[in-house]
Every structure is written in C-alpha cells, then in structure tokens.
Write a structure and sequence with these properties.
Helix content: 55-70%
InterPro entries: Colipase (IPR001981), GASA (IPR003854)
Low-confidence stretches: 24-28
Radius of gyration: 21 Å
Shape: elongated
Number of helices: 4
Strand content: under 5%
Mean pLDDT: 84
GO molecular function: enzyme activator activity
Family: Belongs to the GASA family.
Structural class: mainly alpha
Largest sheet: none
Protein name: Colipase
Pfam families: GASA
Number of strands: 0
C-alpha cells in the first residue's frame, strides 16, 4: 500500500512539473512586442468614434501582438486580430 502511495505521489508531482514547464513554454514567445499605441493611432485615424476604436484596437493588439495595416480591412495579415469577437458574435477589433 505504501508503494502505491509513493508511486501515485511521484506521478502527480511529475504531471505538475510538466504542466509548469509547458505553461512557461507557451507564455515565453520570442516575438518582440509591437508599439500598440502608435499602430492603433494609424488604424483608427479615420474612425468616427476614435476613443472607442482606440480602446478596442489596443485590447486586440495586446492579445494578438499585431494590428493589420491600413485604416480598414486587411484582416488576413493578422488572423488572431480578425478572430476576436464580442459576446454578441460581432468582430471586436476595428
């Protein structure tokens, strides 16, 4: 019975260590962070609601680390940005 407990404890510890290593590998990407503020200023310069546009754009940029070029469209350049949606199913990112 004691052998079983030791074996179970070592298995659980191993799984926990593997989970921490995997989480560290996922969060530590080597891509440099872009300047979201300036990219979103370019993206939102023609918006009729610039404050709303900037807030949404900067949220999306922080999550995806990219902003499509231009003031509209070009979602194919940044799929993560294009796939973020609101609770209502509409595109979150301008």
């Amino acid at each position: 019975m004691a052998v079983f407990r030791v074996l179970l404890a070592s298995l659980l510890i191993s799984l926990l260590v593997l989970d921490f290593v995997h989480a560290d590998m996922v969060t530590s990407d080597n891509a440099p962070k872009i300047d979201c503020k300036s990219r979103c200023q370019e993206r939102c310069m023609l918006s009729s609601r610039p404050n709303l546009c900037h807030r949404a754009c900067e949220t999306c940029c922080a999550r995806c680390n990219c902003v499509p070029p231009g003031t509209y469209g070009n979602y194919d350049k940044c799929p993560c940005y294009a796939n973020l949606t609101t609770h209502g199913g509409r595109r979150k990112c301008p």
